[in-house]
Write a structure and sequence with these properties.
Blueprint lengths: L2 H23 L6 H12 L6 H7 L5 H13 L3 E4 L7 E4 L1 H4 L4 E5 L5 E4 L3 H17 L10 E4 L2 H4 L1
Parallel strand pairs: 3-5
Antiparallel strand pairs: 1-2, 3-4
Length: 156
């Protein structure tokens, strides 16, 4: 086994251990179905709809997907992103992945893409948001930014 493969396996084990702890702390167990959902989210290149997850995990029924995603979200393992198209998208929580990012959300089809801002832009945004928060006596814990617009397919 290569060192890169070992590192990937270690990262997967760390991810599953963290989510297992969060679920246990919420009085839930880390079932095989929940593990498969987490694996599908971890390998996806963008936030996933329930339909995407049902396709990726064929043994997953739609009703089971919603129920399990709710449990994972309540445990702080998954984040639900609302879009304009009635179909929410889901991704692993930033506190689990330790990857801060923002989203480009298509108001036409509901596609959600991840966007990693350059460090300089992120510092400016965080600074301005902290400034706004202070003027309102608000103590920020983080931020999420969704840029709304139309994807290339909807524009074309």
């Amino acid at each position: 086994m290569s060192a890169a493969h070992d590192h990937g396996h270690e990262a997967d084990a760390d991810l599953h251990a963290e989510i297992g702890l969060r679920l246990t702390g919420s009085g839930q167990r880390y079932s095989t179905v929940r593990r498969r959902i987490v694996e599908a989210l971890a390998t996806a290149d963008r936030p996933q709809s329930v339909a995407d997850l049902v396709e990726a995990v064929p043994e997953l029924a739609v009703s089971s997907a919603y129920r399990n995603l709710g449990v994972l979200a309540d445990a702080g393992a998954v984040t639900r992103l609302a879009t304009d198209d009635d179909a929410a998208r889901y991704e692993l929580a930033e506190s689990v992945t330790e990857r801060h990012h923002h989203h480009l959300v298509c108001t036409g089809c509901g596609l959600v893409l991840d966007y990693d801002p350059p460090a300089a832009l992120e510092r400016q945004v965080a600074s301005k948001l902290d400034e706004v928060a202070r003027t309102q006596g608000f103590v920020p814990e983080g931020h999420r930014i969704d840029l709304l617009g139309r994807c290339a397919e909807c524009v074309g």
